[in-house]
Amino acid sequence: MSKAARKTATRKGLDLITATHQRKFQKQPETITSAVPVVAAAMPTGDDAKLVALGRQISALRVLERASEVESMRCNEAYDQMTRSNQMTCSRKEALEHSGLAAAELAGNLISDQMTEVYKQMLGLRPTTLEGYRALALAIVENCWCDEINLGQETGDEWGTAVIISSLTGIPMPDDDGQASAACDISA
User: Fold this and answer.
1) Which residues have CB under 8 Å from 88's CB, separation 6+?
2) Closest CA to 28 of 175, 147, 184, 166
3) 173 in Cβ contact with 163 (< 8 Å)
């Protein structure tokens, strides 16, 4: 695929994802950003203000990434139907194009790359306020942990990190049985 064709496919893929799914995610009250406790405080400045702004970018990109994942699943089903047929009339490469799977996967990869770049920018900043730490913690959950508190191997340091991030973001930690437990709200 040429560079111009890839750029056009990406633009079309992002437009399709945005138009098809953006309303769905805007209507869901349980989106990750709604879990953040609201605190009346002075507007952050310096690195903290940059962290908050970049955190908003990560959240917006995560919404697009979730929509892209849904679109990729839909296109993958169309691709599977095309390739399962005994009377397949096109090559697998053509099926990738016709199903939209190639464009959907490319769009998803570009969104993921953008999230990674924003996250790297955030890691170069140093929070000094609760808002800055909260923005960074939420970026970790959205960019690295797929919207859930990740307990890893549940060693002491991983558990402690998970408790801090859960407390900062308001996102519950999973219990021993895998169910979400209440998060601590450190803003009170």
Assistant:
1) 82, 95
2) 147
3) yes
Give the pLDDT band (50/70/90) at residue 82: confident
Lookup: tokens for 142: 């959205």
Contact in structure between 39 and 187 (CB atoms under 8 Å) = yes
- Structure-token match 């990738």, residue found: 96
Separation CA 96–CA 26 (nearest Å):
29
Q: CA gyration radius for the chain?
A: 20
Which H helix or E strand runs over 46? helix 46-84
Residue 27, amino acid:
K
pTM, entire model: 0.65
What type of residue sits at position 161? T
Residue extents of the structural domains in the chain: 6-23+44-127
DSSP state of 178: S
pLDDT digits (tens, 9 = 90+) for 148-185: 887 766 677 888 888 888 899 988 887 655 555 555 55
3-state secondary structure of 44: coil
Residue 147 CA: distances (Å) to CA of 33, 100, 106, 150: 10, 26, 22, 9
**Which tokens belong to 139?**
């970026």
